[in-house]
Write a structure and sequence with these properties.
Blueprint (H helix, E strand, L loop, with lengths): L11 H19 L21 H18 L11 H4 L2 H7 L4 H22 L29 H14 L2 E3 L18 H12 L14 E3 L4 H8 L8 H17 L2 H5 L4 E5 L4 H5 L3 H5 L2 E4 L14 E2 L12 H4 L10 E6 L7 H8 L6 E4 L8 H6 L1 E7 L7 H8 L3 E5 L18 E2 L8 H6 L3 H18 L10 H14 L5
Parallel strand pairs: 1-2, 2-3, 3-4, 4-5, 6-7, 6-8, 8-9, 9-10
Helix pairs in contact: 2-5, 5-6
Bound molecules: 2-acetamido-2-deoxy-beta-D-glucopyranose (5 copies).
The site of one 2-acetamido-2-deoxy-beta-D-glucopyranose has 9 residues, from loops.
């Protein structure tokens, strides 16, 4: 257990000065080099009182230093040779604090990605500017499933090259540094394990040089060990989270610096968002990586990350899903769903389609002689209605099975939608359209269906859990979403 401290409320003065620091950062990020929407710092309704011109000058001059930081040899950028060979500038860099170095490094990445956003349409391979960072495993994102393949590629490469995550060591297993690996919330345990013990290049032991700080607690484990069944009392979870933040914010300088804006937590449990209320800055300012990405429950897509839910029975994926049938294999069923009637959407689905129509195989309880994954592999569309919470492991399973997911959700921010065009490999149907579901699916032309399936084959790798993690797989995609929130760049 982590040590607990008495709750101490922030004094008005320290709160204000902290907010000012946060605002300065927000303004910096809004500057010329900065693309897209800003993080919403708490209190962001306040008008910026900092003179913008002065700040911009500050950013501009620091950008000059950034040019100098570029290592000679990393050519192919548009930085002027003279500038980054200027020895007097290069020497100055040595005197920068870790924090300044980190920010400048991010400014370079931001500028590079921004150039890619504005310059790449179509075939990114033809661009010569990225060859210096292409690696052995040369996957290059391309095609309609990506919002902007070139910008994504650049951003991904910048992430691989620079991104450093500091993992707090505070806390003991099982509630920290450990998580479920064998159930519906397994992504929690798998991520913690990968970032802490994986071969990855992303973890740094040098907290000064980190871009983000990870608090490796597991809400699923808290539910297992702290929650009293049927009590519906989530206070112990909130207290644990609150204590954790308090401990790291007293022991290290990093949390207070930005009020947690460069910190992240990750959880797949339904109650993850509730637990994150344990600290209001964590809730409002930090990056929360959540399966339960319900915008009606405070999920903020500009700073929070939607996490795919991946169900691992006995710690593994079903072998059936690992090798889907060839693209031309016949899929006799139009659509398939089997699952309980919980949550706001499924009652309507089951009411209209359970045992109604042979084309739509809709079950509440799957009869024993039928096999769940085989049915997915034999269906053209897999229905993925939200249950108790917005996310459903069916979505990822459908992607593995190359069965076009039919998303039936409200207020759900789909995973990796900052990079992926979900409409290129799934169908979204309004809940009010459920009575017309068969009509809607029948109306998808053969050609459109083929395109969607091709799309699934492309995005499949982005949802795969590998041990060890592999480039562009789900672990890297999650990190990339965090990276994007940290540098705060929009790719589309
Ligand atoms: C977080 O946001 C909520 C809702 O906007 C607000 O009531 C609360 O005061 C905020 N907390 C902090 C610490 O700013
Ligand atoms: C190098 O930097 C110094 C100090 O900022 C500056 O005076 C000088 O003009 C620079 N030289 C070049 C070639 O950019
Ligand atoms: C961070 O701020 C809190 C509340 O103001 C304070 O108790 C704590 O000591 C600060 N942490 C550090 C490392 O200064
Ligand atoms: C699918 O394609 C393969 C090779 O292209 C072919 O050998 C096979 O007969 C096809 N199967 C069906 C069901 O059309
Ligand atoms: C999303 O949040 C809203 C507001 O709390 C809630 O009514 C709705 O049921 C949630 N959606 C799901 C699928 O849980």
């Amino acid at each position: 257990m982590i040590k607990t401290f008495n709750r101490s409320s922030y004094s008005a003065a320290s709160l204000l000065s902290a907010l000012c620091i946060a605002l300065v950062i927000a303004v910096l990020m809004h500057s010329d080099y900065y693309y897209g929407a800003s993080m919403r710092f708490s209190g962001s309704k306040l008008k910026y009182s900092v003179p913008l011109v002065q700040l911009q000058r500050k950013v501009l001059s620091s950008y000059d230093h950034v040019r100098a930081v570029r290592a000679p040899g990393s050519s192919g950028t548009s930085f002027s040779e003279n500038r980054f060979r200027n020895q007097s500038l290069t020497r100055n860099i040595g005197k920068l604090s870790g924090e300044e170095k980190v920010e400048r490094e991010l400014a370079v990445a931001r500028a590079s990605i921004r150039r890619a956003v504005s310059s790449t349409i179509g075939n990114f391979r033809s661009s010569t500017t990225v060859h210096d960072i292409v690696e052995d495993d040369e996957y290059v994102p391309n095609g309609v499933v990506y919002r902007n393949p070139g910008a994504f590629y650049r951003s991904y490469m910048e992430m691989e090259r620079r991104f450093k995550v500091y993992v707090y060591s505070e806390g003991d297993p099982p509630m920290t540094h450990h998580g479920p690996c064998k159930d519906i919330y397994s992504i929690e345990g798998r991520f913690i394990h990968e970032i802490e013990h994986g071969v990855g290049r992303f973890r740094t032991r040098d907290a000064q040089r980190a871009h983000v700080y990870f608090m490796p607690f597991s809400v699923t484990m808290m539910v297992k060990y702290l929650y009293k069944p049927l009590s519906y009392n989530l206070t112990p979870l909130r207290h644990f989270v609150s204590d954790y933040v308090r401990v790291v914010s007293m022991k290290y300088p990093f949390w207070n610096r930005t009020h947690g804006a460069d910190h992240f937590m990750l959880t797949c449990h339904d109650w993850g968002p509730h637990a994150s209320r344990g600290n209001s800055f964590l809730y409002n300012t930090s990056i929360r990586v959540l399966c339960n990405a319900n915008t009606s429950e405070g999920f903020n897509p500009q700073k929070d990350v939607s996490l795919p839910e991946i169900n691992l029975y006995a710690g593994k994926l079903s072998p059936k899903l690992l090798s889907p049938p060839p693209a031309n294999a016949s899929r006799p069923h139009l659509a398939f769903f089997a699952g309980g009637t919980h949550g706001p959407i499924r009652p309507s689905l089951l009411h209209h389609w359970k045992n109604r129509d042979n084309d739509l195989q809709v079950y509440e309880y799957l009869p024993e002689h039928l096999d769940y994954y085989s049915l997915m592999l034999q269906s053209k569309f897999c229905l993925c209605p939200s249950g108790h919470e917005v996310a459903s492991p069916r979505i990822v399973e459908a992607i593995y099975a190359e069965c076009v997911p039919v998303i039936l959700s409200e207020h759900y921010v789909l995973p990796f939608s900052d990079v992926l065009r979900w409409e290129a490999f799934s169908i979204q149907v309004e809940v009010s359209e459920i009575p017309r579901l068969k009509e809607v699916l029948k109306a998808v032309s053969e050609e459109k269906y083929r395109t969607l399936k091709q799309g699934l084959r492309v995005v499949r790798k982005h949802f795969m859990l590998n041990k060890p993690a592999q480039r562009f797989d789900v672990f890297h995609m999650i990190l990339h979403s965090i990276w994007l929130r940290r540098i705060n760049v929009r790719l589309s």
